[in-house]
Amino acid sequence: MSPIPTPLLPETRRALVHRLATGQVAGRAPSVVAAVVRDGRPVWVDGWGTVDGRVPDGNLQYRIGSITKTFLAVLVLRLRDEGRLALTDPLAEHLPGTAAGKATVGALLAHTAGLIAEAPGPWWERTPGALRPDLADVLGGEPQVHPPGQRHHYSNPGYALLGALVQRVRGQAWGEVLRHEVLEPLGMTRTTLLPIAPHATGWAVHPWADVLLAEPAVDTGLMAPAGQLWSTVTDLARFSAFLIDGDDRVLHPDTVAQMRNPASPPEATDSDSGYGLGMQLLRRDGRLLSGHTGSMPGFVAAVWVSPDDALGAVVMGNLTAGLPAGTLAADLLQTVAEREPRIPAPWRPLPSVDPQLLDLAGPWYWGPAPYVLRPQADGFLELTPLSGGRGTRLRPTDDGGWEGINGYFAGEQLRVQRDAAGVVSHLDLGTFIFTRQPYDPAAPVPGGIDPAGWQAG
Question: SUPFAM superfamilies of this UniProt entry (predicted)?
Fold first, then answer.
């Protein structure tokens, strides 16, 4: 995070306003409000259109729909990090008595459990939750529509189950858990289950005439974890900063990064999008965005973040259909990223370093492929390929080893091997042998080394 907040250039601000205005006009939205976050702070907030005769501002509530799922995922991952459950646990282990008890917690988060997309009966988004008083009403008689784990199939009832899981494990309503564990620490005082004035009215816009029809704003009951929340652009700007940097009061940055890792197979027809743990993923012009879109009758919303750019963008509108909030938010983020590329923080030497880590620093080779291993300021190690290959970030483990936390080597163990004199001879990372010289004959390279050694062509 930059120590000195820098305002956007006037040309950038005008480009953002232009994109917001054209989006509102093309989408025929009664109102749209948006924000851009850079280095953890809002650097632009603006609205277009009106709500009750006024241009919307950062304090006006809109319904955020499925962005609620990302909040719910944070609650579940807090339980995982506390050791209260594992992502591989079947739901029945913590929430018995449902028709989806064999689904794992992780599969529910990633929408790979194969459950139905919507609750049976009247459209749950426009009807009161009293019509679905029990989880059996949310799932119906045959909730399984795909074999578990085979494909990504978005399931709103799956997140209703996760909300019930949080409530059972915590012994408190999931909304109260959310308020105490996430909203209050992050200062999100205007994010609530039910609307609190000032808030926008949700509208349907007639497709062929410029007239409006009010949409119902119901309490969806047990389905609320799938899309109930109301929020403001200011609060979601705070949440987007959290999705970039994490916050130890809520969730460790490494766990937030795990939310962004693909956890379900992409559809063959849409290889640029994916899903992590409660977060949608989008690759756009070489930039990986993560966050979530949301919609409920009368409302659309989107949050995208790009940690590499330290940027986030939020869009909220009060109409049922017509405004592509996800596209608009991605455009706003890209506008800033391209017009004002991120300025890196100054290089600084490590405040301290373990001498044994210095023994590991420097070039290593997997076969002939060069890598570099660097100690990091947070005590982790960074293994980077120099000519294409599989790198990873490694965290120290309690037994003196290291564990990969991302990429191909996530979860794999790195063991530092020393010779009889105590000198580091090679590294073993999940059976990949890294040596100080390409195919070092002194190291136990799998398959051995040709006795003739390196030869001229």
Answer: beta-lactamase/transpeptidase-like (SSF56601)
Q: Which residue's structure tokens are 């405004």? A: 323
C-alpha pair distances (Å), 190 with each of 7, 70, 195, 235:
25, 17, 9, 7
The class that CATH gives domain 355-435 is: mainly beta
In tens digits, what is the pLDDT along the chain, a chain of 457 residues?
Answer: 444 568 999 999 999 999 999 999 999 999 999 999 999 999 999 999 999 999 999 999 999 999 999 999 999 999 999 999 999 999 999 999 999 999 999 999 999 999 999 999 999 999 999 999 999 999 998 999 999 988 999 999 999 999 999 999 999 999 999 999 999 999 999 999 999 999 999 999 999 999 999 999 999 999 999 999 999 999 999 999 999 999 999 999 989 999 999 999 877 677 789 999 999 999 999 999 999 999 999 999 999 999 999 999 999 999 999 999 999 999 999 999 999 999 888 988 988 888 888 889 999 999 999 999 999 988 899 999 998 889 999 999 999 899 998 889 999 999 999 998 988 999 999 999 999 999 999 899 999 999 999 999 8
Q: What does residue 322 show for φ and ψ, rounded to 5 degrees? A: 120, -30
CATH number belonging to the domain at 19-339, selected among 3.40.710.10, 3.90.1150.10, 3.40.718.10, 3.40.50.150: 3.40.710.10
CA distance 391 to 371: 8
**The tokens of 79 are what?**
């339980």
By CB atoms closer than 10 A (0-12, 13-18, 19+), residue 234 is buried
pTM: 0.88
The residue to which tokens 């039910």 are assigned: 194
The contacts of residue 307 (CB under 8 Å, 6+ apart) are 244, 245, 257, 260, 290
Asked if omega into 198 is within 30° of 0 (cis), the reply is yes
